[in-house]
Design goal:
Radius of gyration: 24 Å
CATH topology: Lysozyme
CATH architecture: Orthogonal Bundle
Structural class: mainly alpha
Largest sheet: 2 strands, antiparallel
Number of domains: 1
Number of strands: 2
Helix content: 55-70%
CATH class: Mainly Alpha
Amino acid sequence: MKRINSYKKYNFSSIKIIFVLSLLILTMFLLVKLWPHEIRKSNFIDKIAPEALELKKQTGILPSIIIGQAILESNFGKSELAIKANNLFGIKGDYKGNSVKMPTIEYANKTRYTIEAEFRAYPDWKSSLIDHTKLFLEGNSWNENQYDEVVDATNYKKAAYALKKNSYSTDPKYPEKLIDIIEQYKLDKYDH
């Protein structure tokens, strides 16, 4: 009888050890698999944050909005538009005569559709960041004050909703998506 009990103890201990080792191996696998993505995201933020801070000094535009929009619009600089044209914000038109034509998702009456559009092609990300803030400061050809509420906003939530109110994006969920990104990556720390 004792022999059977010791066998059961040994078997249970072995199962516990195998279970713990399996959990460790799974955890290590997930860390190795997911860690590079988090590093890439952190590197992107670290790369553009100094320019966003400098632009805040010059313009007053909140860095959390600049960085958050760059993340949302370019998928941390990995979108096709960011790679091909250094365009972090999906700004249409041309930049000093340079553009690329690409498909884009638009919304009308909460209906999603795709069109081909010309997007500004920049020589580097810094030019894209500067041009983005210039758009906020100067508006567009039909309304030079279009983004005054964004520039004047004292917090990222007001700025995010001002972007939607002033037709920066046709995405009906744009403010919520932007706020979620700002809060997830604690980008408001750059605003103070």
